[in-house]
Amino acid sequence: MQRELPTVPVLRSLRTGTSLYFPASSRQQPRAYTVFHRRLLPALYTDPLDEYRALTEGVVLWDIGTEIPLEVSGPAALTFLDHAVTRDLTRCPVGECRYVFVTDQHGGIVNDPVVVRLEEHRFWLMPSDSDLLLWLRALAAAWQADVTIRPVDTAPIQIRGPRAREVIRALTGDTVADLPYYRFAWTRIGSFEVLVTRTGFSGELGYELMPLDGSRTGPDFWETVLAAGRPFGIRVAAPSQIRRIEAGIFSYGVDMTLETTPLELTGYEWMVNFRKPRFVGRDSLERIRHEGPRCKVVGITIDGDPPPEFWDGLLVEPLPVSLPGASEPVGRVTSACLSPALGRIVGFARLPATFATPGSEIVVQSSTGPRAGRVVPTPFVDPEKRRVKS
């Protein structure tokens, strides 16, 4: 049973912008939008299962021009960023990328960007949906750091799926198409200079493309990429929540927030490098590591057929989780979907650490009544990440 789509149109204003590709991607008639960085992001064109199959069996084009990369540059850029994130950026050479956590003084996650080291003292950050620009500028002001922090004039798109490499090869040639995972290259596509990275948010082979002078690209760049992809069956689609859940990818604002620490994210604890003598939140995270986190965000499976709220992988509100034989909730489900690859409901839940070990039984309160479930390891599909690293 599918969840009913909203029928009230989104009211646009100066406070709700759009991607530079909006005129082009809107011609595909999205059925629903969400908001990302205060801009409208296409969230569905056909139906979630159809778009999932297009992603996992062919190749798709995503309009993610609502993502606004940030540039950090200047003599103190490396020192500044290394103190702002939990990983050791001094070990990231020019030409590579890193997924990092930016934490506050309490260890809460401010953002989880991908960092691209373009030059010795020049970085781009691809942020999730929180105001990383203001946070970094506040840190720079407090530390009187000799850095410049600014939004980049670009509009990213992603090409993803098992045939993505063929599309990139048609656009740029072999060198860019054969980029290793979490590497990048500069290239030209038509009249545009473009940064291409082997990064993304899907668990599938893919590339993120960021043309310079984004304000003049818009539909022209979109149509250039779309035309190159047509011989390979490219489809315009929205980022697949189903596939990112299968891949064990947590979403900021959904599965983690400012109230979540990296040590609560099962499988991501290693991203806090306590060998570093300084970074924001280190003392708080050291204390949490010593005491043990009170909560964990874990993978779960839920028994039975999927109720409507699991249709697209996005929950309107968290679902209460209790223990067998108890009525009081102890946690909540933050994401869940019916996995086409597994034929069962999988998702993430925030639970007390004492109940978060694999095999622990839980009860999820769904719209169709209580459902039995259990804690399981993640990722649910392709745990070796062979698809995305292929």
Which labels suit this protein?
390 residues; six-stranded mixed sheet; 10 helices; alpha+beta; six-stranded antiparallel beta barrel; globular
Short synopsis of the structure:
This protein is an alpha+beta fold.
Q: Which strand-content bin applies to the residues? A: 25-35%
Which term fits the overall shape? Answer: globular
Spatial strand arrangement across the major sheet = 13-14-15-12-4-16
Residue-averaged pLDDT, rounded?
A: 93
Q: Kindly provide the radius of gyration, computed on alpha-carbon positions and rounded to a whole number of angstroms.
A: 21 Å
Query: Between the first and last Cα atoms, what is the distance in angstroms?
Result: 35 Å
Biggest beta sheet summary: 6 strands, mixed
The residue ranges in which pLDDT falls below 50 over 5 or more consecutive positions are: none
Secondary-structure-based class equals alpha+beta
Helix content: 10-25%
Task: Explain what you see.
- The two termini are 35 Å apart.
- The chain is built from 10 helices and 22 strands.
- Strand 2 (32-36) and strand 3 form a beta hairpin.
- The mean pLDDT is 93.
- A 6-stranded mixed β-sheet has the order 13-14-15-12-4-16. Strands 17-20-19-18-21-22 form a 6-stranded antiparallel barrel. The chain has a 5-stranded antiparallel β-sheet with strand order 6-9-10-5-11.
- The chain is globular and about 65 Å long.
- It has helices spanning 22-25, 48-57, 77-84, 132-143, 164-172, 174-177, 218-229, 241-246, 282-291, 386-389, and strands spanning 17-18, 32-36, 39-44, 60-63, 70-73, 97-99, 102-103, 109-111, 114-119, 122-126, 148-151, 157-160, 184-189, 192-197, 206-211, 235-237, 295-302, 319-322, 331-339, 344-352, 361-366, 369-376.
- It is α+β, with helices and mostly antiparallel strands and 390 residues long.
